[in-house]
Amino acid sequence: MTIEQLYEIYRQYPSVQTDTRKLKAGDIFFALKGPNFNGNQFAEAALAAGSAYAVVDEAPATPNSRIIVVADVLTALQQLAKYHRQQFTIPFIAITGSNGKTTTKELVHAVLSAGYKTYTTQGNLNNHIGIPLTILSVKYDAEMAVIEMGANHLREIASYCEYTLPTHGIITNCGKAHLEGFGSIEGVRKGKGELYDYLRAHNGTAFVMWDYDYLQSMSKGIPAVIKYGTIEAADVQGAVQQSEPFLTVAISKGATLPVIHTQLVGAYNLPNVLVAVTAGKFFRMPDEKIKAAIESYTPSNSRSQLIEKNGNKFILDAYNANPTSMKAAIENFAGIQANNKVLMLGGMAELGAESLQEHEAIIDLIKQHNWKAVVLVGGDFMKLDHPFIKMANSTEAANWFRDQLFNDTYFLIKGSRSMQMEKVLG
Q1: Rounded mean pLDDT, 25-54
Q2: Which EC number(s) does the record attach to this protein (predicted)?
C-alpha cells in the first residue's frame, strides 16, 4: 500500500494510536515494535476493541482486510505524518533546546491560541514517535502548529525536520544535557543546531535569544532572524523585575505591555516568556492578548510549580534535570528570602563520562550557600563523598521527609525523570 492510499484511509479515520490501552473506536492502530514489545501481536485485539484498521509489518496468519501490512510500521507512521504535513501552508514552529522546551512550547501555544486555531505537542511527546503523532493530530482547521523536539544524539533533530518541515524555529539554549549521546557541549550545539540548518536551507525564520553569543553565531545565514533578550540589540527586550515568588517581566522594547506577572517560578524562565512575546508580536497578536495569555498560563507536570502544602512551600521542578538547569534552579532558590530552606535533589542522568565531575560541581555549588538541610538522592550523588544526607531513591527520601515534620519550610525538589523526585510529595 502506498502512503497516498494510506492517507486516504487516514482522511476517513483521522485518529492514530500506538497504545491499545488508549484506543478509541475508529482509531487507526499502528503496531510499533520495541526492545521489549511487539505491537504486531496486538493487532487483532486492537480491531476487536474498535480500531478501524491496524497497520502492521508482520503479516497475520489469516488475511484481514482491516489489517494493512507495510514494510516498517514506524517508517509508515513518519511518512504518513509528512504527507499530512504537506497538506498545510500554515506556520509550523519547531522548538528544541537543552532546557525550557516544554515551558516555551506551552507559552508560545498559549499566546498564539488567543488569536489562531493552534495545535501543539501534548505533554512531552517530542521524539520519533511523539512528533509524528502530534503532526497527525493537527486538524484541517489549523492556523498554527507548535511542535516540540527533544534529542539526545546527533542527526535526531535533522530527522524530525524531514517530516515536520518547520517554517519557524526556536532553540531555547544549548546546555549540558544528554552529554552521553552528544559527547560534548559542542556536540549539543551541533545537534540542536540542526534545526537552524534546516531553516537556513529552506528560507525559514528563527526566533533567537540574542544574549547567547553561540546562538548568534549558530543562526548566521538564516534568511529571517527575530531577536529577543535583555540587550539593546534585541527586537523584543525585557528583564526580570521580580522573581519571588513568581517571575515578573518588564518589557522595555518591542511591545507596549510594560509588565507581565507570570505564574512561573524562577528568573531562568525569562527567555521563555520573552520568546512567547516575540512570537506573538511577529504573528500580529494584540499586546493585551499576549499579556493575558502569558499571565493565565499555569505550569503543571512538575515543571517550576509552586505548591503550598501543610504549612510549607515547595518548588517542584522534578520533570527533568541536567547540570545547566540544576545550577539555575539552585541559584534561583538561594536568592529566595526564607529562613528555612531545604534542597532535595535527585541524580542527573545521561551525562556519560562527565557525570561524576558534573555532580561534584553541583555539590560544590550547594556548599556556597546555607541550607536547613540538603538531601541528595540516587545516581552519581551516591558515589561521591559529601557532607549532605544521602538517599538511595525517592521512596527513601519521601520517608525521610515525612519523619521530619517540617513546618514553615521552603523546599526545592528537582532531579532527572528517572529519579521520580515528585514522590517526595506523595
Answers
A1: 96
A2: 6.3.2.10
